[in-house]
Amino acid sequence: MKTNFLLPMIAMIFAIGMSFATDSVLIDPNQDYVRLDDGSFMPLGKEIDCGIGDSTCEVELPNGEIRPVYDASDPNTPKVGDGEVNQL
Amino acid sequence: MLLRKDIKKVIVEGLSLFFILLFTYAAVNKLQQLNVFENQLEQFPFIGGLAQYIAWAVPATLITVSVLFFFNKVKVLAFIGSFTIILLFTLYILAVLNFAASIPCSCAGIFSSWSWHEQLYFNTGVLLMAAVGIAFSHRRRRSKLESTTIQSYIKS
């Protein structure tokens, strides 16, 4: 009976520890971001509808530059979509 | 070919640990950022209006199912619960991808950095695992009941 409880209890404690230990990225549900040349992120002020697909989602900025879109101000959150370049 | 009883037991125990890890991790992650999770859900098609209830219901359900895995008598129920949760989530993803006017960020899923498609593939695998858990733990429980009945019959 003791061992029946021990393993699940360890697993649960481990999972709680993991969720605190992992540095979870706060995905912004209200707007997307683009990465600038200096590595900083610029908010776009709205969510870009990238469509469905596995291609990189890109947006054309007012100055004509085309840049990949990110879900958060984090390089590990690139957005994917149908591959079409979206207008801002 | 029939699997031996002890192998089935190991598989059931392994799957139980996997679901405890998965559901507890997901639930605690949501509870850590409850306001953000609620905000994310508000942007979701079909369920946006119920965001404040769903934001609490999801982690509560996940933790309840995780705790059910602690008890051998209700392990089948825990696997059925896991199967139902993942099935509902999978059907929702399919509905969003096929019928929603705009696709929201996939950030409110089990792993926030995964795309909808990645979550869909992962869910398919987890559904299969839950189905195996239901089948194996159900048979184990039935064979246990049968052996108990035979033993009590022999004693009497």
TrEMBL record, chain A:
<feature type="signal peptide">
    <location>
        <begin position="1"/>
        <end position="21"/>
    </location>
</feature>
<dbReference type="Pfam" id="PF20130">
    <property type="entry name" value="DUF6520"/>
</dbReference>
<keyword id="KW-0732">Signal</keyword>
<dbReference type="InterPro" id="IPR045391">
    <property type="entry name" value="DUF6520"/>
</dbReference>
<feature type="region of interest" description="Disordered">
    <location>
        <begin position="66"/>
        <end position="88"/>
    </location>
</feature>
<protein>
    <submittedName>
        <fullName>DUF6520 family protein</fullName>
    </submittedName>
</protein>
UniProtKB/TrEMBL annotation, chain B:
<dbReference type="InterPro" id="IPR009908">
    <property type="entry name" value="Methylamine_util_MauE"/>
</dbReference>
<feature type="domain" description="Methylamine utilisation protein MauE">
    <location>
        <begin position="9"/>
        <end position="135"/>
    </location>
</feature>
<keyword id="KW-0472">Membrane</keyword>
<dbReference type="GO" id="GO:0030416">
    <property type="term" value="P:methylamine metabolic process"/>
</dbReference>
<dbReference type="Pfam" id="PF07291">
    <property type="entry name" value="MauE"/>
</dbReference>
<protein>
    <recommendedName>
        <fullName>Methylamine utilisation protein MauE domain-containing protein</fullName>
    </recommendedName>
</protein>
<feature type="transmembrane region" description="Helical">
    <location>
        <begin position="50"/>
        <end position="71"/>
    </location>
</feature>
<feature type="transmembrane region" description="Helical">
    <location>
        <begin position="78"/>
        <end position="100"/>
    </location>
</feature>
<keyword id="KW-0812">Transmembrane</keyword>
<dbReference type="GO" id="GO:0016020">
    <property type="term" value="C:membrane"/>
</dbReference>
<feature type="transmembrane region" description="Helical">
    <location>
        <begin position="120"/>
        <end position="137"/>
    </location>
</feature>
<keyword id="KW-1133">Transmembrane helix</keyword>
